[in-house]
Design brief:
150 residues, mainly alpha, 3 helices, rod-shaped, t-SNARE coiled-coil homology domain-containing protein, transmembrane helix, SNARE binding, Syntaxin_N, T_SNARE_dom
């Protein structure tokens, strides 16, 4: 029966081990809380810097309310959307000049095509006239040749 009950030295040693483990556990929890606080502080500072970049005139109360309301992604999305519209506006302006140039070239090309079609029509008419004239000359030549031989 005595072998089942721990003696005083065992009890004391177990209590010391439990106390040491409890102290290590509490120290670990304390370190975890310190690391978490440090992370939260750095996260808050980083988000605040980003908010100040996006909205330089924001008051501290606005910054705090944005951070506390899980708003940073929304304000950054708004900033990215604004930047996208600005980029698109600039591209439309830049490409507007290009489109105007393309339109002018298309109009010039249309004029050149009309002028070319006019020249082709004149060339076809001239070729027909030349053939007709050549046929008359050959006919007259053969007529004179036939009368001259007789």
């Amino acid at each position: 029966m005595n072998s089942q009950l721990p003696n005083n030295s065992d009890t004391r040693m177990r209590k010391q081990q439990v106390a040491a483990l409890k102290k290590r556990f509490l120290d670990t929890i304390q370190r975890y809380q310190d690391v978490e606080r440090n992370y939260q502080l750095r996260y808050r500072q980083r988000i605040e810097r980003q908010i100040r970049i996006v909205k330089p005139d924001a008051t501290q109360e606005e910054v705090d309310s944005i951070i506390d309301s899980d708003g940073p992604p929304q304000i950054f999305a708004q900033s990215e959307l604004h930047q996208l519209f600005m980029d698109m506006s600039m591209m439309v302006e830049q490409q507007g000049e290009t489109l105007t140039t393309i339109e002018n070239h298309a109009e010039q090309t249309e004029g050149h095509i009309k002028e070319g079609n006019t020249f082709i029509s004149k060339a076809i008419q001239s070729a027909k006239s030349t053939r007709t004239y050549a046929n008359y000359k050959l006919t007259l030549f053969f007529l004179f040749l036939g009368r001259w031989r007789k």
